[in-house]
């Protein structure tokens, strides 16, 4: 190492330089249109002793921090898997999701014999087959979201298969610690421990956690701490049972995914998770050995195999389930990369002595190459799918080719459903929704409400309103609730009652997250209203002004009958009881 290059001698310095390098290389990756993960890994490469300047030497400390990030990542992955939604997904997603990974592993197994013989690890062949069968949720979802294709049928099938890969990961992680001495007894023991952990967690999530979470729901900070405690409790229990702590974290998130509080937990954990995960990928970069020509050629061959394996397994499977060839090919192209979770599996396997360092490096290089190729493949997935259809037609497989039906007259694009987001639901919001329930109940399907008061959420659910638990001051909570769909955003709560935010801040966040939405906010004074209008509010609710306007309408006629009519309107429109109490 050159003498002028500084060395990070302690944990704090190692974390600092790792974060700086990851940020700089991620900016470069973003600038050239590549996944940020590539930047994080390259940051580790530059800092490491193999290909870089040997600046970070305390790799074990970085690995420990990265393991925390891995646990948080899998906890959030579990929180985002709704088993009930999977059960309602339909035959195409259920069958293809269940079979895709086993088919890819079966296809890879005979072809990896020579590769595993060269790498030399005891279980390299099995780990490579599983690792190459998993696709990247991060890359696929990000690129499809950017193209607005997640809501298409092909996008939904892609997402469904990715979710099933996560479920397969639970099974793999349950048996992984015992793969080195895998016999019938060890396998049954691992499965029994895994099923016991899932069952115990499910029982607690049904009979213990709902009451606990409801008790602490008024404090978002305590909700976050309790959720992390639950995550590390289940992860630690899994480790104590001889299972993977990563598997425990996934189960911890999975069993509470249906709770109304999961959106808020995801939002608050996202930043912490992203920091630790950055260090996880930097740590992977620190381990990358110098690539020989043989390794590079093998990685190129495996990258080609990944793309081919998706076409060979996914396209026929989806065709047999009734999909047209073009959609089937689009799904296969969307899945043609190697998952970050493959690196997790290989990394854990290396720590357990199951996988050689050469196999770990090979998967890492393959993941890097496949990520770059997949970025462009998903960008042009529809032209590529059409090309595959033409190619199959030329080689004589016309039965597989998409049938060309007469082009129908294009139907007018339906207008998107309006979505009114209520950010915070206090007395004013409840009164508005109850009035809506009486006057125009059909409009309730367009309302989405966010609040952290569990009593309010119960009232909203009783009214049939879509509601999310969360702190409206947290931008990640708003994103997970889908605020980008909003046509109107309403904050009707006075600044005196808002906690940790203000109507001015809500206005700024709404403009950032839903730039096309109309924004209605509240002010306590005329001066405050003028400031909000100057900041870009579309309408400002000023309670004293609204009260004055209403009082003016009541008194304008100047007759007793006008006051009586206003009273009767309150009784009819608002449901207010105006009958005097009987004299005692």
Largest sheet: 6 strands, parallel
Low-confidence stretches: 399-415
Helix/strand/pairing class, anyone? mainly alpha
Could you say which overall geometry the principal axes of the C-alpha atoms support?
elongated
Distinct helical segment count: 26
Describe this structure in words.
The chain is built from 26 helices and six strands. By secondary structure, the chain is mainly alpha-helical. The protein has helices spanning 11-31, 36-47, 59-79, 83-87, 91-111, 113-119, 124-133, 137-146, 153-175, 184-207, 209-216, 220-240, 245-255, 262-287, 293-320, 325-334, 340-351, 357-379, 381-394, 427-439, 454-462, 475-480, 503-513, 526-534, 543-555, 560-574; strands at 420-423, 447-451, 466-469, 488-490, 518-523, 539-542. Strand 4, helix 23 and strand 5 form a beta-alpha-beta unit. The longest helix has 28 residues, at 293-320. Residues 399-415 have low confidence and may be disordered. Strands 3-2-1-4-5-6 form a six-stranded parallel β-sheet, with helices on both faces.
């Amino acid at each position: 190492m050159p003498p002028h290059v500084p060395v990070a001698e302690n944990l704090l310095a190692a974390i600092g330089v790792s974060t700086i390098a990851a940020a700089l290389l991620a900016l470069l990756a973003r600038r050239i249109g590549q996944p940020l993960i590539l930047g994080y890994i390259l940051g580790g490469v530059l800092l490491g002793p193999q290909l870089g300047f040997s600046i970070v030497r305390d790799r074990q400390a970085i690995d420990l921090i990265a393991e925390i990030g891995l646990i948080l990542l899998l906890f959030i992955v579990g929180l985002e898997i709704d088993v009930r939604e999977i059960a309602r997904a339909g035959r195409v997603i259920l069958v293809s999701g269940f079979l895709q990974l086993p088919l890819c592993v079966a296809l890879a197994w005979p072809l990896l014999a020579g590769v595993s013989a060269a790498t030399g690890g005891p279980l390299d062949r099995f780990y490579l087959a599983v690792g190459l069968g998993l696709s990247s949720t991060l890359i696929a979802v990000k690129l499809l979201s950017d193209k607005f294709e997640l809501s298409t049928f092909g996008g939904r099938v892609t997402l469904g298969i990715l979710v099933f890969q996560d479920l397969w990961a639970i099974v793999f992680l349950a048996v992984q610690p015992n793969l080195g001495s895998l016999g019938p007894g060890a396998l049954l023991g691992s499965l029994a421990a895994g099923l016991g952990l899932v069952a115990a967690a499910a029982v607690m999530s049904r009979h213990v956690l709902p009451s606990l979470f409801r008790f602490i729901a008024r404090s978002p900070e305590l909700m976050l701490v309790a959720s992390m405690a639950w995550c590390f409790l289940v992860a630690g229990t899994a480790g104590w049972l001889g299972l993977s702590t990563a598997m425990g974290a996934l189960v911890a998130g999975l069993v509470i995914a249906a709770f109304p509080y999961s959106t808020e937990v995801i939002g608050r954990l996202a930043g912490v998770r992203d920091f630790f995960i950055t260090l996880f990928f930097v740590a992977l970069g620190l381990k990358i050995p110098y690539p020989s020509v043989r390794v590079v050629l093998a990685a190129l061959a495996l990258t080609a195999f990944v793309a081919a394996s998706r076409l060979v397994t996914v396209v026929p499977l989806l065709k047999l389930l009734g999909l047209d060839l073009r959609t089937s090919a689009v799904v296969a192209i969307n899945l043609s990369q190697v998952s970050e979770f493959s690196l997790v599996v290989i990394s854990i396997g290396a720590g357990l002595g199951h996988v050689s360092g050469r196999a770990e490096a090979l998967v890492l290089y393959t993941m890097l190459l496949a990520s770059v190729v997949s970025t462009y493949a998903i960008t042009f997935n529809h032209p590529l799918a059409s090309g595959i259809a033409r190619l199959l037609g030329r080689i004589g497989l016309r039965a597989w080719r998409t049938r060309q039906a007469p082009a129908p007259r294009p139907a007018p694009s339906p207008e998107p459903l309006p979505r009114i987001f209520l950010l915070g639901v206090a007395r004013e919001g409840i009164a508005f929704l109850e009035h809506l329930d009486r006057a125009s109940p059909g409009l309730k399907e367009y309302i989405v409400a966010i609040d952290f008061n569990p009593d309010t959420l119960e009232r909203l659910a009783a009214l049939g309103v879509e509601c999310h638990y969360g702190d409206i001051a947290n931008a990640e909570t708003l994103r997970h609730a889908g605020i980008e769909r909003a046509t109107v955003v309403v904050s009707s709560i006075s600044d005196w009652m808002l906690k940790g935010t203000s109507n001015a801040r809500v206005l700024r966040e709404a403009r950032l997250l839903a730039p096309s939405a109309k924004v209605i906010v509240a002010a306590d004074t005329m001066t405050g209203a003028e400031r909000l209008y100057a900041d870009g509010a579309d309408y400002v609710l000023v309670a004293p002004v609204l009260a004055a306007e209403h009082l003016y309408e009541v008194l304008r006629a100047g007759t007793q009958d006008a006051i009586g009519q206003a009273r009767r309107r309150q009784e009819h429109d608002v449901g207010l009881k105006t009958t005097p109490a009987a004299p005692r």
